Amino acid sequence: MKIAVIGAHGTGKTTLSKGIADLFKFNHIPDVVADAFKLNFPINEDTPPETQFWIISKQIELERNTLSSWVMEKSLWDNIIYGEFSIKDKSVLKILRNIAEKNAKYDIVFYCPIEFPIPDDGLRSLNVEFQKTIDKEFRKYLKKQGIVFHELKGNEQQRLKEAQSLIKKHKTKI
User: Fold this and answer.
1) Which CATH number applies to 2-173?
2) Which of 5, 19, 27, 154 is the most core-located residue (most Cβ within 10 A)?
């Protein structure tokens, strides 16, 4: 089973994805944006194409090489959403979009809406308007592409409980 946990930055994706991985003993694929940041790639509002291509390449590598069931803190679609915000060259954005859409293959997609203040971890942008813009663009993209997703609301325990129920239902269907 391949699960993507998506949404804007600072919405609880890491907590939820780790919770799902622990609960079901799935492999956990962490947010590679943190790795990009550690390697001095510019991120957030000023993410250049070079960073975005490094991130998507790393995500594809991890998704393809992680055996068995896994849960990822993001999706390949994140590259499109954040790229739309920061990449001005539409031909570059088109290539990024084609790569993401060709390779994004998830059994379940969980969406984390904005419900909490953005944690100040030194990594994420604290710009609430930027976060809202990403959230809005994500929802618009998912709807336009007809991507089925489950929006998980509430505190950490409520989200995990709902995810657990949905994963169990999915497992009985296959």
Assistant:
1) 3.40.50.300
2) 5
Q: How does pLDDT run across 90-141, given as a tens digit for each residue? A: 999 999 999 999 999 999 999 999 999 999 999 889 999 999 999 999 999 9
Complete edge-to-edge strand list for the sheet that includes strand 2-6 = 27-29, 70-72, 2-6, 108-111, 150-151
Token couple for 89: 């060259």
Residue whose tokens read 């999706």: 75
Q: What is the pTM of this model?
A: 0.94
CA 49 to CA 89: how far, in whole Å? 9
**For the chain, how many residues are written?**
174
Comparing C-alpha atoms, which of 101, 53, 102, 104 is closest to residue 74? 104
Count how many Cα atoms sit within 13 Å of the Cα of residue 117 in the half-sphere of its side chain.
Answer: 3
- The answer to whether 164 touches 143, Cβ cutoff 8 Å, is no
Closest CA to 67 of 28, 108, 121, 12: 28
